[in-house]
Amino acid sequence: MTRVRRIIQAVRYDLRPEIPSVPCDAEGNPRVKNFNVKLFKIIGNDVPVLYRTTKLRYRRKSPDGKWTAWIDKQDSDTISVQTGVYVLYEIEAYHGGSLLTSLGVSTTLDGRIGNKGAKQRVRVWDRGHSYLQGKDKEDWYDIALYRDDATRAYEKYLCLVSHGPRNITPKEDVAQRLGYWALASEFEFIATRLLLAERITADQIDATGLCATNADISGKITATKGEIGAFNIESGGLSNVSDNPNASIRIEKNGGRHFVVNSGDSSSMCAIRGDEGTALSVSAYGTNSTGIELIAQAGRNTTALRSYGNVNLIARDSEAINIHGLCLNCRTVNGSASIGTDDDVIVVNNSQWAELTMPANAQAGKILFIKQLTGTGVKFVNAGIYDPTGNSLNWGYTLNKYAHAVLLVHLGDRHWAIMNGW
Fold first, then answer.
1. Which of 128, 162, 210, 266 has the highest CB neighbour number within 10 Å of its CB?
2. Rounded to two decimals, what is the model's pTM?
3. Which of left, alpha, beta for 111 (phi over 0: left; psi -120 to 50: alpha)?
4. Per-residue pLDDT tens digits for 201-235
5. Domain co-membership, 373 together with 336
6. Pairing, β 140-146 against β 155-159
7. CA–CA dist 140, 122 (Å, integer)
8. Element (DSSP H or E) covering residue 92
9. Closest CA to 138 of 115, 104, 106, 172
10. Residue 311: inside a domain, yes or no?
């Protein structure tokens, strides 16, 4: 009797993902929304056979080594890729209640950056084919031709993530924004990468001698050297240093509101005007602070500050206004005259009575110093005048020849008080 020896061959199971790793951008955020895995049963050296799972479950590992909770997928081979930064996806395949095998799928940063030497490959899309994006050492980047209606022309799709066979068409992938394909029907393909007819869509562009017109840029711009207009970028700022600097700044709403620096149509290096508002506001707080420091020296007729209009110098309690070398507006009159609000010292040089018409619109607190050199006397008109004791002197006030002067202070409402007389 011949005995038949039965050889039992080893059985193993193999989980195969459609992508070698989960591609992520430079910040670690995933570029795809999901990926599929297939379970194959292998008996001995036989050809692997697709095997149905009853459950997949997976979890994700974060950079700090912590794992998320397990997620179960019943009768599905799709692994959802969640937003956030993860370094590994651990996947287990079950049939019934038995664990058949497990698999780890890592993440890869900058998964879309391609090999500069990759060549273009164009072919009709087939769900049974694998497609390459041209990254790392891949020799090709794929352009898939796809149409869902035989009466229509093919559309071109650029592979963004290298992957194995998928049931989802490029058109469906783009519609669902899964991240594997990009519609390229309006693109022109040149050399090894992609040139758009109207715009370039890319996460990173390395270029030397890039020229652009009408660039619309959002986000951070870092420029450590070069030029912007007439300005040089250097030492973290902008400069225009030369014997004849031509850089200028002009901010203007209309003639009444502008900020101009080094404009050719102005004699000022910096001109500021702000009608119906404050043209320049300067504040300084803290110990040893100075709001504005003005220096004008060397040369002739040099002026540190020239002002027209009202000037308010307000010293608060315990503060002071220090003026060294004060010069007042001094005027000599030969006879009767009108005094203006810009007069400070009036010298009367007249052989007879001098009639002085006081200003009608003087500010309260205005001070006048009047000195009589010659003449009979001085009479003030157009104002109420009071001597130091409070008596009215509307009839006139005589200053003795060569001897007397008066200091008048405007009390308001055209009333002046003689503070002293000698």
1. 162
2. 0.44
3. alpha
4. 666 666 666 777 777 777 788 888 888 888 888 88
5. yes
6. antiparallel
7. 10
8. strand 88-95
9. 115
10. no
